[in-house]
Amino acid sequence: MNRKELLDRVYAMAFTYEKENRGCAQSVLAALQDVFDMKNDDVFRSASALSGGVGLSTHGTCGALSGGVMAIGMLFGRERSNFKDPGKNRMISYGLAKRLTEKFEDQYGSIICYQVQRSCLGRSFDLWSSIDYADFDKVAYRQEKCPHLVGIAAAWAAEIILDEKERSADDRPE
After folding, report:
1. With 70 as the cut, is the pLDDT of residue 59 above it?
2. What is the pLDDT of residue 173?
3. Average pLDDT of 125-139?
4. What number of H helices and E strands is found in the chain?
5. Residue 138: CB atoms within 10 Å
6. Does residue 151 form part of some domain?
7. Does residue 173 lie in a domain region?
8. Cβ distance 73 to 161 under 8 Å?
9. How many CA atoms lie within 13 A of 126 on its CB side?
10. Which pLDDT tens digit goes with each residue over 9-36?
11. At residue 112, what are phi and psi to the nearest 5 degrees?
12. Structural domains of the chain, count
């Protein structure tokens, strides 16, 4: 599968996961885990509470961004066995996460859920209010705006992952 096909596939998977199951962080993470063959149920489960800016609070980082950063960390983060990380390998994952964060800031003006909602949905919503959530559902899901945002976030993360894999391959001695 070529790069464009992979990016289209990860977008479609994340879009569908979000539309059918909800949970932006898990939808992005699941699509990336599937495409890069790195399924891990414990990591997937750990993304449960990250949606809606952490616990549907909307005051934290967009869950779609969090899911993408988790996938980046799975592939390029330091391992517990190398916790001290004297070679500072963790800087790779920090830099890749920063790139994904910058894409969100460029596109939505923020990485904070309620501000991303304003940019993408026209206003922010209290996801713990049944009335507000019904309004959120009409805009976010019936108009497929959140599934699209989730698909885009997964494709951005996949692109960053592919770039790093290519860069790492180029750096290997022959």
Report:
1. yes
2. 63
3. 96
4. 8, 0
5. 11
6. yes
7. no
8. no
9. 5
10. 999 999 999 999 999 999 999 999 999 9
11. -80, 130
12. 1
